[in-house]
Design goal:
alpha/beta, Elongation Factor Tu (Ef-tu), domain 3, Rossmann fold, 7-stranded antiparallel β-sheet, 6 helices, 15 strands, 22% helix, globular, FNR_nucleotide-bd, FAD, oxidoreductase activity, FAD-bd_FR_type
């Protein structure tokens, strides 16, 4: 097998497109023949596509594990999964919408996060994940990894969406909660709920985080991912609640 270590783009084949929620899709790419890759936690990879109106467009996306329930760290795979939200406007979304099964997609090697600290992850007694929208994507891998390979006594995930139709991987996370009932807790919030929705109401706020987060201790580690406004608001609130900056990682 040839392992991807250089920067150059590789041509992959689009094997499958699965709709997960409103405007959110999972794309499964097959790597070139006899090629495998080990995707590290918290990394991103660039997609590059040709567009009819311009030469090419590219954007980074976070690969996720093929299975949240059979997760194996440091294992090599011949396929990659990406969860992507497609927007009405935007060059990359327009190019991705034109893709169909069997088409080619160029992907770069994976780029790890410069600020992610695996030592803190493994030394943390509690892990807190704050996600909004498709900001849940890195936690689709980080959650099973943390449950299997760290000794954190509790993993708390607060997930924020606008509507019920925006939620994805609900069943996958529910199964993880059933399997790790003593260690994993998930709370979902909707900012524009229907009357029949059972999820809690609200956007990220001082009141919500103060109610659901434990009092800060130096061996806690918090991860935030979502739109820029969400990440900035969550980080500001944590600062107001006296969480130390070096205990917070923003994807």
């Amino acid at each position: 097998l040839i392992y991807i270590v250089e920067y150059q783009f590789k041509i992959c084949k689009l094997d499958k497109i699965v709709k997960l929620a409103k405007d959110i899709f999972m794309f499964v790419l097959l790597l070139p023949f006899e090629t495998a890759i080990n995707v590290t936690i918290g990394c991103h990879m660039f997609w590059r596509l040709n567009d009819e109106k311009i030469n090419s467009v590219q954007r980074p996306y976070t690969p996720v594990s093929n299975s949240m329930h059979e997760f194996e760290n440091e294992s090599f795979t011949c396929s990659l999964c990406f969860i992507i939200k497609l927007y009405d406007n935007g060059e990359m979304s327009s190019a991705i919408k034109q893709l169909k099964q069997g088409d080619q997609v160029e992907i770069s090697r994976h780029f790890p996060s410069n600020t992610f600290d695996p030592v803190k992850l493994h030394n943390a007694s509690k892990l807190i994940f704050l996600a909004a929208g498709t900001g849940l994507t890195p936690f689709c891998t980080l959650t099973p990894y943390s449950l299997k390979y760290t000794t954190a006594s509790e993993i708390l995930i607060l997930i924020f969406n606008e509507r019920k139709c925006d939620i994805f991987f609900e069943e996958e996370f529910r199964l993880l909660c059933d399997r790790y009932a003593k260690r994993l807790k998930i709370v979902r919030f909707l900012s524009k709920p229907e009357k029949s929705d059972l999820e809690q109401r609200g956007r990220v706020s001082n009141e919500i985080l103060q109610e659901h987060l434990p009092k800060f201790q130096t061996d806690y580690y918090t991860f935030i991912c979502g739109p820029n406004g969400f990440c900035q608001a969550a980080a500001k609130i944590l600062d107001q609640l006296n969480w130390e900056a070096d205990s917070i990682h923003i994807f």
